[in-house]
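Workshop exercise sheet. Pairs work together: one partner reads the sequence aloud, the other fills in the structure field after running the prediction. Swap roles for the next sheet.
Pair: D.N. / O.F.
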Amino acid sequence: MILTLTSIPIAETFGMVGRDVRLQEIIETIRHAAPSEASVLIEGERGTGKQLIAAAFHAQSHRRSGPFIHVNCAAISPELIEAELFASIEAANGGTLLLEEIAEIPCHLQSQFFRVLREHKFRFGDDRESDVNFRVVVTTTRNPKELLENEVLSKDLYFCLSTIKIKVPPLRERADDIPLITRHFLKRFNAQYHRTIRGISQETLFHLLRYDWPGNIRELESVIERAVLSCSSKVLVPECLPEELQSKERVNRTIVIPPLVPIEEIEREAIVQTLARTSGNVKLSAQILHYPRPTFYRKLKKFGIKVERDGPGLRENSQRWPNFPHPNASLKSDCDSL
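Structure field:
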């Protein structure tokens, strides 16, 4: 089976692609909090999209017409970080300052930075002081709790920076979003490199779902770009993927089924969750579950499942079993068995 570019609906907001519940919560936080002046702390692994979230906070704020200054504190030598930090503060006046890896700022500079945030004043040398007006968004790949316990990050600065706290889930915990993100990158790189790849094979998709993605979305982006450039067919096949993604070994995943649940209830729940993931796409859901279309319709009628495109009812029904495995785990296991 081939999954075409049009068979998987894309859900994109603020440049972020996916239907994962945690991603939707982040999007709602941006909608509600971006217009405020509150500082933002974004925690997450490398490649999870922290910069994109920071840019969304700026773009949806009243400061959108002002500068968006981006500084990676981990990439600046200790000798230059003080000059770079305060030059960035000056440049960000009227806009937003994004500081990546905030814990890399030395302790003595943290106290100075905290004073700037508290007083909204910036001293240039010994004799010139100016008012500054900027919003600060910071990111870290490290656990903030450990940073505080190890006194790497001062408590005063942490509480000043973390009015809004966001934790970005890694891609391996968003397996349901991998087809959506893959399609997004396919469309982009088709246009960028004037290619006409119309989809990906089912086997290729399952390789993508099995992989743990240590580099997260940034790694998936690189993999799809390389695949688009190297693929000689109109469909991405496993041979287009890097060697580390081509392993055919089955991943040992466990689905925890609640005790004393009849097989028909398990089957119904699998159908409901698959329909929720595909936004009510009956054709795609039947393909994923390996049902012939007429059989799938009979199952819908038998179980009393009403299908609505993007229907919230499907998502609510999938929460009836509190002990049922997370949708990410079940999708991976479903795909492994196809």
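Discussion prompt: The CA atoms of residues 39 and 160 lie 7 Å apart. What would you look at next?
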